[in-house]
């Protein structure tokens, strides 16, 4: 029986490009996240596009170009708190809505990304912060 990946189901490369653009437009406006990123987003956009494509069942673009993802290690040079993870996920949820990804696919993707985002947390937050 033929199986369809989530990547194909939501429209493949063009959907993932739109998603990544919409996501970094939001990151660029987010006062907590913006300072962690370099002045221009071109490189990180390309890498995120490769990564998300691969994560959701598309071609293994990230591993072909960057090797093993080792995402937690690659994020260690940035102090990431639970608050950062929440902002990241909110930007992503809004970007998915703007891109027109259907709710069921959106939920499945956010569940996966939510776990990864929490795994990136490497710094305790302020006192009293969730
Ligand atoms: C939890 C909050 C997160 C923060 C604050 C954050 C922040 C960052 C920053 C600052 C960079 C580097 C930009 C540069 O090149 O200078 C980066 C790279 C990257 N992030 Fe995140 N990130 C977060 C979560 C995630 C999650 C959940 C994913 C997985 C979908 C992810 C995937 C990536 C990828 C693939 C790269 C490029 C890695 C490379 O090849 O160098 N990040 N992130």
From TrEMBL:
Looking at the UniProt entry, the stretches that span the membrane are none
Going by the entry's taxonomy, the superkingdom of the source organism is recorded as: Bacteria
| Pfam families reported in the protein's UniProt record | Bac_globin (PF01152)
Cofactor annotation = heme
Alphabetical UniProt keywords: Heme, Iron, Metal-binding, Transport
The family line of this record is:
Belongs to the truncated hemoglobin family. Group II subfamily.
What is the name attached to this protein's record?
A: Globin
- The species is Alicyclobacillus sendaiensis PA2
